[in-house]
Amino acid sequence: MAEPRSALAASTADLAALQAVEVSFLTQIDVRCSPEDAERLGFPSVANTVAGDLTRGVLWLGPDEWLVVGLPGTARATTEEIEAALEGVHHSVVDASENRAVLELRGVDRYELLASGCSLDLDPRGGWVPGVCAQTMFARAQVILQELDGATRIFVRPSFVHYLVDRLLVSRNA
């Protein structure tokens, strides 16, 4: 059996130039349920916030939608656990692990790079701090941004990830 290959496996030089790393093969489970059921599961109830940690975090994506992000190889167990917890109530639990590539920008200029193609105010003084997230567009590519301590995580469809890296490199070199 062939080894899995990440979306940016051949882009290490470009990522290094951006002070970025690819976070490969994360578990990503899309959960739709009522806010009351989500609260029972410990999901965030405040818009654009994150609960949990890097082992298992939950991003608020909408009034009835969350993205559970976990360690590689945990999708099946995570899906089964959430399905069991939501048994008997209206819900949807979908393994979307291969639906997005994930980058972490770690450079001190990451906010300026992102501002070159994103309309969100990413200034920490304005509230863009670790523990927040947002769905937005970056240079016409749909992304999810998650602020970590010392890095910004970018979730983007694999078909757009090279475009995103190229766009960030153009901004870096402008």
- What is the straight-line distance between the termini? 43 Å
Whole-number tally of structural domains? 2
Q: Roughly how much helix do the residues carry, as a percent range?
A: 25-40%
Oligomeric assembly: single chain
Alpha-beta content class: alpha+beta
Strand order of the largest sheet: 1-7-10-9-8
Task: Describe the 3D structure.
This protein has 174 residues and is an alpha+beta fold. It has two domains: 11-25 and 99-174, Gyrase A, domain 2, CATH 3.30.1360.120; 27-96, Alpha-Beta Plaits. It has helices spanning 12-17, 35-40, 75-85, 110-115, 158-173, and strands spanning 20-22, 27-32, 50-52, 56-62, 65-70, 92-95, 101-105, 133-138, 141-148, 151-156. The strands form two sheets. Strands 1-7-10-9-8 form a five-stranded antiparallel beta sheet. The longest helix has 16 residues, at 158-173.
Notable characteristics:
174 residues; alpha+beta; Gyrase A, domain 2; Alpha-Beta Plaits; 2 domains; five-stranded antiparallel beta sheet; 26% helix; globular
Brief synopsis:
By secondary structure, the protein is an alpha+beta fold. 26% of the residues lie in helices and 31% in strands. It has 2 domains: 11-25 and 99-174, Probable tRNA modification gtpase trme, domain 1 (Gyrase A, domain 2, 2-Layer Sandwich), CATH 3.30.1360; 27-96, Alpha-Beta Plaits, CATH 3.30.70.
List the helices and strands and how they pair.
Elements: H1 12-17, E1 20-22, E2 27-32, H2 35-40, E3 50-52, E4 56-62, E5 65-70, H3 75-85, E6 92-95, E7 101-105, H4 110-115, E8 133-138, E9 141-148, E10 151-156, H5 158-173
Antiparallel strand pairs: 1-7, 2-5, 2-6, 3-4, 4-5, 7-10, 8-9, 9-10
